[in-house]
Amino acid sequence: MINMTDTPTTQRLQLALNVTNLEDSIAFYTKLFGTEPARLRPGYANFAIANPPLKLVLFEGGQDGTINHLGVEVSTSEEVIAAEQRLIQAGLETTGIDDTVCCYAEKTETWLQGPDTIRWEFYVRTGDSEQMENEVISGDGLTMCCAPEASAAPEVPAAGATKSCC
Questions:
Q1: Which of 35, 57, 112, 163 has CB 3.0 to 4.6 Å from 46, enough for a Cys bridge?
Q2: Is 66 exposed, middle or buried (CB count within 10 Å of its CB: 0-12, 13-18, 19+)?
Q3: Given this model, what pLDDT does residue 108 score?
Q4: Which domains does the chain have, with CATH numbers?
């Protein structure tokens, strides 16, 4: 498992939003946070904001003006594993840990759903990808997705079930 940075272990909140107009949203958030997007792809932009520590992800489409999902970006796969163990010990149901390609990144991730159907992910980006669609590389195949087509928040799949995405 790869650590994409040489910096000490850190975490930052991820806020993924569905937007009506990606170009207008990029212009607004660039001015708001004083930084350009770190990644731009068709229908997709993400900002790596230093202060406040935030990963802001914009998806064009979906239910516009809504939260797509929330997440915690960590520095290593070991931190994802530790978060997964902590969540399970706390009695929360997760999707399990998967290595995936999704949203133009290779990731190690686990997902869960809050009581009001807001989806959360703990993840580390392990590489770049040119693929938006979700693909499970290894793991149990129980995953959620952040693509805007999934406008209704899915339930966490039952053990043994598979979840298609995007």
A1: 57
A2: exposed
A3: 87
A4: 10-166 (3.10.180.10)
